[in-house]
Amino acid sequence: MRSASTHAPRGLAAILQKNPDDVVITFAKRTAMGRAKKGQLKDTSVDELLQALFKATLEKTRLDPSKIDDICVGTCHPPSPLYVSRSAALAAGIPNKVPISTVNRLCSSGLMAIRTIAHAIQAGETSIGVAVGVDSMSKHPRPTPEICEEVDKNADAHDCIQSMGWTSEMVAENYKISRETQDKYALISHTRANEAVAKGIFAEEIIPVELKGTVVSIDDTIRSGSTVESLAALKPVFPNWGPAATTAGNASGVGDGAGICIMTTRERAEQDGMEILGKWVASSVVGVEPRYMGIAPIYAIPKVLEQVGLKKEDIDVYEINEAFASQFAYCVEELGIPIEKINPNGGAIALSHPLGMTGVRQVVTGLAELRRKNGSLLCTSMCIGSGMGAAGIFVNEARSGSRL
Asked: Homologous superfamily of 12-138+254-391 in CATH?
């Protein structure tokens, strides 16, 4: 397991210190999400969604697109993702001199896009960069991976390509995560998300986008009315595997959406009069046994904390992806982090998990929550299909009442 960051400050005081060469985030928003195959984005292609997001972002920020040095898009399953992303950027009015790349580390792809831009800024190769996370699971559901017979003889290689639902059941079986425990954590997610909707919290992080003449600005993924009884009544979706405890109510929703962060140095932001919302500090990536893919945050989070000299108690908000309640419950209990600090407005079980979007969405959501709470530090993390995990540390620099 190797560190993904080499220039990170160490210790709380150093992390909170403001330096001219800090990598900062000046804009962080996401689109509303749609339920895959059924929701408001089911007929929207990835390029159409990206074009709308780029256009809305440029209009909102008034950023001269010719000043962008590079764009990185995290996405998982659309065919020819680089061509799609490049075309969308050009159609949105971004000049053809602005380059673009795509990155795919499955569920962490959005975070990896942020990491890629951050590292380019640290290296002095980029001054203003844009990180994006996007996926349409309506148009591009997970394909069935294929490996040759010789590779498949390796046990880890065989497990690596299995259904993510199977890994959920393997975690539940091996770590004794009961159906009741899974439903308990799922109910927390559903309840918190519905409370956030009632308070209008998500409106603060969503940028409205126009698609086919309609403005999309409200998530349609959040289901109301979840109770202990209603969750317990749901049938397993993987009845032939393990304890068969994973249901549509305690697994992440399948969805569509996109998120975006504009990043630069503190010096450049101040020079150009750009509002600073947060600071990128460091990231970590790890590998675990593929069949227990979901437990990766229990390694990725301590690794990134140790890397920057922080204790878990130093973090004000954690955004940990809820791929499945089985793995999420195990991670929460193993990490020993108070649930009050984790996904305070619900997570992917309630909101949905568009694979490439999630890594950016969690940063957008976490920074917005820190601003409301006047908190300082965000740790974000997720498990990654095939047996990996990632985490990142961010500092809030926008306090309650500031303009977003």
From this structure: Thiolase/Chalcone synthase (3.40.47.10)
